[in-house]
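Worked Example 4.2. Consider the chain below.
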Amino acid sequence: MAGLDANTKLLLHFNDDVTTDATGNHTVSNNGVALDTSDKKFGAGSAVFSSAYLSSVDSADWDIFGSNSDDWTVDFWGKLTTAGTYTRIMSQYADSSNIWIIAKFATGALASYAAVGGPTVVEFSSAAGIWTDTTTWHHIAWIKVADEYAFYFDGTQVAYIQDSSTANYTAPLSIGYRGASPEQYYPGKMDELRFQHSNYFGAAPNSGKTDTITVPTEEYSEDSAKTFTQGIIIV
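Applying the procedure from the previous section yields the following structure tokens:
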């Protein structure tokens, strides 16, 4: 399916290695993450996180809380190896008072927050019991539509907040942990991680949590718009 276009800021397929960004935008550093070619959602492999993480230097492409008028989609496929722990799935950590996080609580709730100068400016989470198993690949999407935020689990909206606060950070992106002690690593596997500067799924987050999105059925590929001109195919 399509999904790699000008709005795609990071795309990790985890096929032949765990660091290649399909957009060509970013260099990703590996800090102990392994490649698993036997258990994956799509393609040739998945990334295995166990007291390990990936990182990439500071970029405007991680400023997902930077505006209250633009749209972002951060999505990936995940499969836990340990369920009952508080894990930081990804973060941008400047210091303990300036940080954003996408996390999973020990209760199985999905959670996200951004803090500036200590106080939290955006914070929301799902109910407990959303992600508790270690046997199945699940699609997780963190979606921002202007000043409305939501989590989607396997296509179903499970959390919501409306908040016009904004925040930017000067810090590396960490995938698989907090970015500083206490680490609280992500204990599981990951496939098809993407940062998209658009409302890719056409989500309509709402306080009733009644929205749904269409879950991907294959890995993301380059959009290919073809124009036919006088019998010549221009790609």
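Residues 2-234 form a domain with the Jelly Rolls fold (CATH 2.60.120.200). The radius of gyration is 17 Å. Compare this with Example 4.1 before moving on.
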